[in-house]
Amino acid sequence: MKHSIYVLLCFISLTSIQAQKKIAYQKVEARQNALDPKWVAYDAKTIDKLPGFKTKKPEPTSVFGSSKMWQKEATGFFRTQKVDNRWWIIDPEGYPYIFKGVAVFNAGRSENQQKAFDAKYGSKENWVKQESKLLRDNGFNGVGAWSNVELVRNAENPLVYTVIISPMGMYHSDHIKKFGGKYKQASWQNYRFDLVMVFDKEFDQYIEKAISEVSQYKNDKYLMGYFTDNELPWYNDALDKHLTLLAKDEQGYLAAKEWFDQRKGFNASASDITQEDRVAFTAFYFETYMKKVTEALKKADPNHMYLGCRFNQDKEQELTNPEIFKVAGKYMDIISINHYRKWEPSQELMNNWGEWSGKPFLITEWYTKGEDSGLPNNTGAGWLVRTQKERGLFYQNFTLELLKNKNSVGWHWFKYMDNDPADLSTDYSNRDSNKGIVNSNFEPYQPLLKEMKIINDNAYELTRYFDKKN
């Protein structure tokens, strides 16, 4: 009897695998940007191809956009909890919340964007009311970094929001002045030798300055939490660079030398550094930053979550380093990751993030650009596809992979509004590309939003589907 059941289960499993292989997914061609001559075709997994899944009308939600499928302890603020082996954000009323957000929810600052704003809305209050409705109508329930926090939180019906502060960014802006406004050696993030100046005592003063403002938010139930800085270079060769590139009297050198002396002895030199030393130092170096910023944050606002410093998935060094994630898990409530230059997130890597850290993660930047937008699309890390509909197919494929993973608690599309190529005051990566859900005239990309809405409206039901399937 047991043998028969085993054979039957094997047959069912094989049949299921064969059925999946026969699914004809839509193909979407993508390339890195408009300057890349090579288009590559990818499968776009979409909700209509999920075996046995039927889309439903949106279920009733809480005021925060959470599902009411169950309820846990209500604490009055957002928090996280693992329920049946899946991580969830729990809203202030105790309901499960998947963060379906849009970053940079802002009305644009260029002359062209301001003219379009005045013609369409007439006031900031009208803009935030109408565009909050646009987000909700398409299944979004919050806004990410660099959004207009004051307008959002003071709206009649606020969206869930986040706050980003940049203590290291503030210090970096002044630090570079000591070198005439330009470092001799720096990467695209423009940190000297790709080193974050965590050991500098002067940095501590900037932490206090940057974080002092957050106490105004500490009783706001619509605030999810805080990011600090963005895409800092946590590279694996930090020990080598501290010991070989910094002057012997610099604070970074002295801290690294003391750490290395204690680990290897006073006679050890940079030539004695091993890969194990590099990994261990990176954790120590990263934890120095984490300790400083989280201590100040919790002092200023003990009620809200720390959402991390927005790891840069493109370089990937920190995202494959277990020691970095062990440190992140000690200090972050949710680990924030900006995800670029890959068609979809890796299930193996996402599982590693959860295992290494013991914490959930949130994808805080990702997007594709459409060739049909009429924009040059030369800049930015997001890939280029041919149409707005294909941008939506990319969205579906990507978010389905996130919803499958029990460590994922949401995503923030980057961003609300397209770049204006005429605005030369922006950094180069935000200069001329179709990143928005609306163009520079505040006209929504409906083919994109149509595909986004299908996933957004069914996100909670999809978690049940994937959990049952697994």
UniProtKB/TrEMBL annotation:
Protein's UniProt name: Agarase
Classification lineage: Bacteria, Pseudomonadati, Bacteroidota, Flavobacteriia, Flavobacteriales
Gene3D superfamilies per UniProt: Glycosidases (3.20.20.80)
InterPro entries per the UniProt record, alphabetical: GH
